Amino acid sequence: MKFEFPRRVSQVAVATAMTFALGTAAVAENHVIQAKGVKFDPMFLYIQPGDTVSFERMPSHNVETLDPMVPEGQEKIMSELGDNITVTFDTVGIVSYKCTPHWGNRMGGFIVVGEPENPGEIIDSYMAVTEEQKEYLPARGLLKKLRVDMEKNGMIGAPES
Ligand SMILES: [Cu+2]
């Protein structure tokens, strides 16, 4: 008994130290996007790499990434109609997605992961995709709004006039 007590104390100390270490490392957050009518809310979401996003209230909706508008290394998404899903985003960049059946209503959104370099150029390159491939045309209006949103939050510098 005499020697057991200090050993237990040290075990507790180690466990406590580990909890603190994990506490500082595990800052990943979960964010929620809800389908409301034929819109995703929020349409533009800003998260940190490692964060997760849950898509909820999806009875007649799904989530499908627009393949040419996903950062390299980020897993593509193609969910089943009606499924609530949770996705982890590890790659810095701008991820586009749509609801497949409501893409004609421009039901889509963007998730900005971390602080991508030259986000204005990423938006330009995505715009170029919409000019080349008709199926991505509904993204144009969303991309314009995204640019305005990122100008407002300071991630894109105001255009020179
Ligand atoms: Cu939908």
UniProtKB/TrEMBL annotation:
Needed co-factor(s): Cu cation
Coiled coil regions, renumbered to chain: none
Record carries keyword Metal-binding: yes
UniProt-listed InterPro entries: Amicyanin/Pseudoazurin, BlueCu_1, Cupredoxin
Keywords, in A-Z order: Copper, Electron transport, Metal-binding, Periplasm, Transport
A Pfam family: Copper-bind
GO molecular-function term, one example from the UniProt record: copper ion binding
Compartments, as annotated in UniProt: Periplasm
A Gene Ontology cellular-component term: periplasmic space
Note describing how the cofactor binds: Binds 1 copper ion per subunit.
Protein name: Pseudoazurin
Organism: Poseidonocella sedimentorum
Lineage, opening ranks: Bacteria, Pseudomonadati, Pseudomonadota, Alphaproteobacteria, Rhodobacterales
